[in-house]
Amino acid sequence: MQSPESCAIMSCPTTLIADEDEEVADMETSVKAVEEILNYKFNKPKLLEEALTHSSCIDSVSYQRLEFVGDAALGLAITNYVYLAYPELDQGQLSLLRAANISTEKLARVAVRHGLYKYVRHNATALDGKVKEFVVTVEQEEQAEFHGGAMKAPKVLADIVESVAAAVYVDCGFDLKNLWLIFRGLLEPIITVDLLEEQPQPVTMLYELCQKDGKQVDIKHWRKGERDIASIYVDGQFITSASSENKENAKLHAAKAALQKLAYKSTGKTNTEVEPNTEIDGAKQKLHELCGRKKWPIPTYRIEKQIGPAHDRRFICSVQVPIAEGLLFVKGEEKSRVKDAENSAASAMIWGLQGS
């Protein structure tokens, strides 16, 4: 019969904690560590113990009930936040924002960023390997991926975040406002409208672009050994394939590759340079509105180049808008903040469109 003490604590090497290979000795240590991460002292530490206990510890109460509560509590907290923060958005846009902020991919990265996974008691050795692989994958990401990165997020990581949130929620008397005050910091950066515009969902974007061109998209799946393969066809013509251990992740990466390939095949590519002294205030919003009026996809931004040391870093960003005639693409000027560099690129795009 397994005792609670026989359950191991997840211990995966990571740069998020100074002593990378330190193993957590007991649950009391884990509770104290997570309280420090949350900056919250539990009235009932047993709640946090439960939140940090995986169902593989069969002689202990697992986090499953708390995860159920946390899923709903975080969903409502995020709903309240986006509703108050974006009074101009419709129900559909609010739903997209909420979904992005409580997705498995988003919450799993929260668990990695704050090292919460290190303090989970479990008796399933397979979890360690999956979590370790995902931690390494996240550390290698050039930017935060909230639709899905190179590897699908293990659900256990999102479960941890939800169960810990529930432990806080119950401990503070089911006070949603207190939960938000305590937990919001862990969820940063909150995914905003701007971030969704910069990282549109690849599969959705592929269907929308092809639909505008009157083309039919077909995604076919099959399995080869341990991996799922997704192949994308447009009007019956093979475009690209991608593989993953997970069907949805394979489709995601195939869509990303197809977007890049189809963009390069476009009939034209407008590439303009920024005219000196023509920075437009609020250019990103103006460009977004312009694309809306023309019924174009929303503009997407990316960092093209980073210059200088960390304490004096400067950025060059680009913006692109796929349209029926081709791909509109422009780089902005070098700026000290990503936000300003994106605005510079948007300004260049607006001037280029006015001159065309």
TrEMBL record:
Keyword Methyltransferase: no
Cofactor (UniProt): Mg(2+); Mn(2+)
Domain (DRBM): residue spans on this chain: 201-264, 282-355
SUPFAM superfamilies: dsRNA-binding domain-like, RNase III domain-like
UniProt domain RNase III: residue ranges: 31-173
InterPro entries xref list: dsRBD_dom, RNase_III, RNase_III_dom, RNase_III_sf
GO biological process: rRNA processing; siRNA processing
Classification via Pfam families: DND1_DSRM (PF14709), dsrm (PF00035), Ribonuclease_3 (PF00636)
Residues annotated as signal peptide: none
CC per GO annotation: cytoplasm; nucleus
Keyword RNA-binding tagged: yes
Keywords assigned: Endonuclease, Hydrolase, Magnesium, Metal-binding, Nuclease, RNA-binding
Molecular functions (GO terms): metal ion binding; ribonuclease III activity; RNA binding
Protein name (database record): Ribonuclease 3-like protein 2
Organism annotation: Nicotiana tabacum
